[in-house]
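Quick one: structure tokens for this chain, please?
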Amino acid sequence: MGIAAGRGIADITGETAECGLLGYGKADQQSAGLHTRQRARAFAFEEGRVRLLLVVCELPLMSDAVVREVLRRLPEGYGAANVMLTATHTHCGPGGYFHHRLYNSNTGGFREQTFRAITDGITEAALAAIADLAPAQLRLAQGELRNASTNRSRPAFDRNPAADRAHFPDAIDPATTLLAVERDGRLHAALNWFATHNTSMTNRNRLVSADNKGYAALHWERTVAGVDHLADAEPELVSAFAQTNAGDMSPNLGLAPGRGPGGDEFENTRIIGLRQYEAAAALTGGRTIRGGLDFRATHLHLSAVDVRPAFTGDGRAHRTSPPVGGAAAFAGARVDGPGFKGFRPGANPLWDAVSRRLVYPFAPALRDAQYPKALALPAGPLNRLVPVIQERAPVQLLRIGPLFLIGVPGEVTIVAGLRLRRTVAAIVGAELSDVLVAGYSNGYIHYVTTPEEYDAQEYEGGSTLFGRWELPALCQAAAGLAAAMRDGVPAEPGVPEPTAAVRARRRRAEADAPHPGRRFGDVLDFSLIGRRATASFVAAHPSNNLRRGGSYLSVERLGGDGTWVRVADDGDWSTLFRWARSGAATSIATVTWNIPEGAAPGTYRIAYHGDSTPKGPFTGVSGPFEVR
């Protein structure tokens, strides 16, 4: 019979101006332009009546609201059990697309425009992948990548038993896994998993960016395969770089924000992304997958899981508690970006004293679940008033031949991931290397640490909201799914997260106006310094038209027939689009083209494409300039 496969890709870029960027949680990190577009890359598989759909989304986090909306729009036969929506975890994507209030804290509330861009794009990519289903050859290969991650939480990692630490002698997970789809002997799609945070761009950046994993995918598609993302033609290749257990893995090899292998955050992003691409590309031509698709899923009420002694590690039964954020969670991950003043990893004397003297003595069940966390955000009680934190976690197990993916809606550390993988591998009889944790999938519950790591109350432990028994509860759920898959019986579906009603932030129509004596699109300034061309234009607000599937700019070369041909757009690595207000109603768009070394000699120009509220669409064009 064999496995049919298909792939699709679509733009999911939201508001690139005056929208809070999700990831670092900084109030002042508001979007002010575009570094690289965000895309959804979908992969559909079919064997007989069994269907699977994986969509890798260049988003900061996956929201329950997005999952619900996308599932509602998919064809019959695709649902919560066999569809995995997973985020790459860029920290520089527009936020406001959650129905849980915590994640809209720096966006002024729910942003309908960004939500629609994301859900429309994911749906388009998914439908394209389903329409593309056709006989294909699947190959699976594993390798190692050792210079694209570092452990940012070593004090917590070192608390783990020696046997677990011995599995990761360098305190990193170097495994890189590639699922390749071939048709007629050519690479048709590529899906890679590797554990490193998507935080090469810092919390000082204001440009929307898909970060290092976005660069890896862009490089393989655009530079290597020659894909034109704005063309109507079917792309030559769709490649995605997904996350696995990246909870304590950072790309900032110098153990500080922006301290990567390059000279600045842009170069750090490129180099870490390039290393992921090179490691993945070296794996093409792996072992052939003959068949075997399957899926199981459940919803786990993480606030009240009775965990059996077989999974707790201390031989006793325990129970998880409603979610509570620790003081260490507000400190942020110092290696990737500091959080809020007054908080720090580890000991927080004031919060520790309040928790240990005034709360834990009177709440033994809470103490058993959450101690030694310094309690700072009682999300469980707040959820009774407004939806703040997701409490019902979708846990999923997908099988593609020998490959098993454990879908978890959280940021899983490498040892926590190892325990989940060992749990499933032992039950289904798989090689450990063929079992991966697919973190950041189908929702978001913050971090998942081992009980030993939890006790350190580093950032990751403080962000393990459901307490020290959260990982054992997830292992217990994963074991149930694995046993059901092994035995060919259904899994208990559980109860999904309640639907949350959210009032959308109404975006006022921007009072766009050109500069006095100017028209929209007029060139204000142009410079060509070395191999960098920069043009500034009289602009309108970018949110008047997100240009999803299009571009705010184009770099054009004069052809021999006298026509201008686009050679780059705002999705290219070589371009930057910046937007800034210059008055109450006036604004400036600045386009930068870092001329690639391989650019053909000739005459070029830069164009800016905008939409004003009073005038509609317009285009501004710079004067011609020479590239030699």
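The chain has a mean pLDDT of 97.
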